[in-house]
Amino acid sequence: MNNVQLLSKPAAPSSTSKPIELYVFLDPLCRDTLKMQSILRKLQVQYDHYFTWRYVLGTKLASLNSLSRRTKGCLSGAELDITHPALPSIAIKAAELQGKKAAARYLLKLQEHAFLNTKDVTSYSALIQIAQEANLDVCEFKSDFGSKEAARAFQCDLYITREMEVDELPSIVFFNECIEDEGLKVSGTYSYDVYVRILEEMLNEELECQPVPSYDKLFQRYRVLTTKEVAEIYSISEQEAERELKKRMLQQKIERLCNNDLTLWRLK
Predict the structure, then answer these.
(1) Which InterPro entries does the protein's record reference (predicted)?
(2) What is the CA radius of gyration of the chain?
(3) Same domain, yes or no, for 79 and 38?
């Protein structure tokens, strides 16, 4: 396997009782992110008793300083709207200040609009609307969006990306519970089996797979899924997955959202 590298663990790792920690580097607006998130979700469904994870956000930027100058009036409450490729990542960090679940809801709603082309998610005004749709405290979100905390959180992600020399998004870095051991960086995306083998090798044991949840429980956990994700999680063809999903759509349990090249299924 190419694009694999050993790395040192960050100085302040998150505390966990699980033996493996994943740093998942991604650009939330990149289509390849969907493939990486599908892999991560299947790993969670089958093996999340072995690992914790955190997203590290990256965005291709010309200059964060230019963003700071342009957002000064907007984020302080003026009626000015702006667009910038860094704004979605800062918005996710602002949502994260309301908790990990709030950030997950926000990320899902943001990606839904981004990939279906229903909003310009690099727009400040659109990101505020998405906060409302994700059931966040919008007043708190606006305040956090313009705060030093959200900016620092995003800058911290960019710092970690540079320190680990992650130059391809998405990527995953695997760490075990021993801080002295080096982590394993896997740049780009590979087949699901590759990531399972990495977990087995790092744990030096055969993994115990959890039972696959029902469709209802799966959608309660993730709320929005693609046909391909469902097919991969249940190890069935995309045609079989679509038939099962249509049944649940007719039962009004889920709804279908689509454009010319993407179909999403969302819990009603």
Answers:
(1) Adapter_SpxH, Thioredoxin-like_sf
(2) 19
(3) no
Residue 21 lies in a domain: yes
- Domains of the chain: total: 3
Dist CA 79 CA 21 (whole Å): 42
Buried b (16+ CB within 10 A) or exposed e, 155-178: eebbebbeebebeebbbbbbbbee
Query: pLDDT tens, 142-168?
Result: 999 989 999 999 999 999 999 999 989
Task: For residue range 108-142, list pLDDT tens digits in order.
Answer: 999 999 999 899 999 999 999 999 999 999 999 99
Q: How far apart are CA 14 and CA 260, in angstroms?
A: 41
CATH number of the domain that 223 lies in? 1.10.10
- How many Å from the N-terminal Cα to the C-terminal Cα in the chain? 41
Q: What is the reported pTM?
A: 0.83
